[in-house]
Amino acid sequence: MEHSFTLISTLAAGFGIALVFGFIAEKFKIPALVGYLLAGVIVSPATPGFVADINIASQLSEIGVMLLMFGVGLHFSLSDLMRVKYIAVPGAVAQMGLATGLGLLVAHYWGWTYGQSLVFGLCLSCASTVVLLKALETKGILESHDGQIAVGWLVVEDIMTVLILVLLPPLAPMLGAEAVQSVESATPLWEIIAWTVGRVALFIFLMLVVGKRVLPWLLWQVAKTGSRELFTLCVLAVAIGIAYGASEVFSVSFALGAFFSGMVMRESKYAHRAAMESLPLRDAFSVIFFVGVGMMFDPMILVDKPLHLLAVLAIIILGKSLVAFGLVMLFRYPLHTALTVAASLAQIGEFSFILAGLGVSLGLLPQEGMSLVLAGAIISIAFNPVAFALVEPLKNLMKKRWKYARVLDAKSDPLSVMPDEEESKYLRGHMVLVGYNKVCEHIAKDLSERKVPFVIVEKDRNIVEDLRENGFKAVCGDAIDPAILIQAHVQDAAMVILNFRDDILRRKVIETAKILNHKIEAVIMTSDDEIAVRAMTDHLGKVFDSNAVMAGSIVKYCMHRLGKAEEEKKFEEESEAEVAK
Questions:
Q1: Can you give the residue ranges of the Cation/H+ exchanger transmembrane domain (predicted)?
Q2: What is the DSSP letter of 29?
Q3: For a designed S-S bond to 64, which of 260, 289, 346, 512 qualifies (C-beta 3.0 to 4.6 A apart)?
Q4: Residue 178, pLDDT above cutoff 80
Q5: The whole model's pTM is what?
Q6: Which helix H or strand E contains 521, and what residues bound it?
């Protein structure tokens, strides 16, 4: 008796062939995702032999997108998005506009109508968040300030693309759609736009106000049962359930819904565990995503339209990157940040496929356009790891060969250097605070009142600017970089106080600080009990709970370790006398 297990055969072929080609790619020092893309081509209808079910692969890819975006949300809070809003929002809008313009001009030169050219340009303007995440994770810079800018930039692009997807059908008749009868509507355009924006805004509002309270509470209740299976099930139910509900009720994309569900769940103290529990599934389904992309590729486009494809790749890899590079430098960010963002945008992905498919169904994009978009996506995704690998060499080459680049790089980030006018006596035996938030604000205030010198290391330029304006010593940069710690004079410091979530990065900072100053003592602030136990077991440093209530205890501990117990006692007596008055 014959049986047809399409889902099982698709998974078996997808995972098996992806494993083989991914392994071969790694052996040749090529990123594994290139092997996954080739595996998709192998099982696609365009090549002989076994053909996987492309519809099932597409749905499995959507699950991968949901889980990946959920994972990003767990590491990317609303405050992170707000910190980069001044560059992410105008940068994304301007970059999408200019990239769309380039695509429109090229397609119109080919003889396409303005409507077709516009949709084609839009398809080339939106980069893939999934591809970016894999690249940033591989490079280890997802948590860095450059990584936050790139992710924030693409989140803004995703929101804009969602609006475009909803607005395109009612606008189709105005753009000369061939399938006019399928999109005719008596509803005024302004009402459609208002309704669309309203639904997206309502979803975001509900997630940030209601979800911010409900989801952490739900995770806490499930965690109290002690069942690992229930905890994992809760994480998956929230990620996929909210993504699907957001799509059905609010017409928000799966990716955006999953991102916001992860972002509000970040408020739970079990967020780190949720990220770890969902990691294996995220990795597995991200492989299926790349296999699914490969399955949509038609190799004949390389033979039929080679010049057209070269023009598309020039827009995606060169045009978008140059536009992004110029915009970031215009905002006076460092050369390295500009090159990182440029590399991040040198590809297109899932939203481009969705937009192109909608364009074809509306008669606003010829089938040739769909093939070019898919080919451009495949090649640009495969090239993207190379683009990231070129960031450092390009930076060094530009600074070596181009005098203006040296001047610009030196001037663009003065916040990463300690000002020369700072007196050296205040940069010896001091505290180094890594990461600035409400708790560190209390610590900085208490240290200032006790006249204990300290330097703050923070990745957010806006925060560093505010701190310096208020008279604090602060350095902008990633504390993993020895050069940044040297600017904070960690080599002469007495203690380093770390207050951020990532345990791996925390250990790297402590390791770097102790290489520069083997006598330095570390104070670790965390709300995760497991991390606290590991830190104490490994003798990384003194551990405190990361809440505002503990700020006073941390300062008292520091005063004690500095041998200033008498000064602390005198300060407390003066404070009590002041309160009595």
A1: 17-386
A2: T
A3: 289
A4: no
A5: 0.65
A6: strand 521-525
Residues 451-482: pLDDT tens digits? 888 999 987 777 888 888 888 888 887 787 78
The SS3 assignment for 299 reads coil
Could you read off the pLDDT of 536-571 as tens digits, one per residue? 777 778 888 777 666 778 888 888 777 776 666 666
Please report whether residue 194 resides in a domain.
yes
**Beta strand spans in 409-517 (E):** 431-434, 454-458, 474-476, 495-498
- In terms of residue numbers, what domain contains 535? 415-580
Sequence-distant (6+) residues with CB within 8 A of 229 are none
DSSP symbols for 355-406: HHHHHHHTTSS-HHHHHHHHHHHHHHHHHHHHHHHTHHHHHHHHHHH-HHHH
CATH assignment at residue 533: 3.40.50.720
Q: What are phi and psi of 142, to 5 degrees?
A: -65, -35
pLDDT tens profile 241-278: 988 888 888 877 777 788 788 888 877 777 778 878 88
The number of domains in the chain is 2
Residues 366, 454 within the same domain: no
- 486: buried, middle or exposed (CB in 10 Å: 19+, 13-18, 0-12)? middle
278 within a domain of the structure (yes/no): yes
Stated as kind and residue range, the H or E segment containing 324 is helix 320-330
Q: How far is CA 423 from CA 22, 420, 428, 447, 473, in A?
A: 55, 8, 10, 18, 11
| Integer Cα distance of 297 and 486 in angstroms | 49
At residue 427, what is the residue type?
L
Instruction: Provide the H-helix boundaries in 172-305.
Output: 189-206, 212-223, 228-250, 254-265, 271-295, 301-304
Give the type of residue at 350: E
- Considering only 12-26, 405-419, 435-449, which range has the smallest mean pLDDT? 405-419
Neighbours of 135 (CB within 10 A): 27
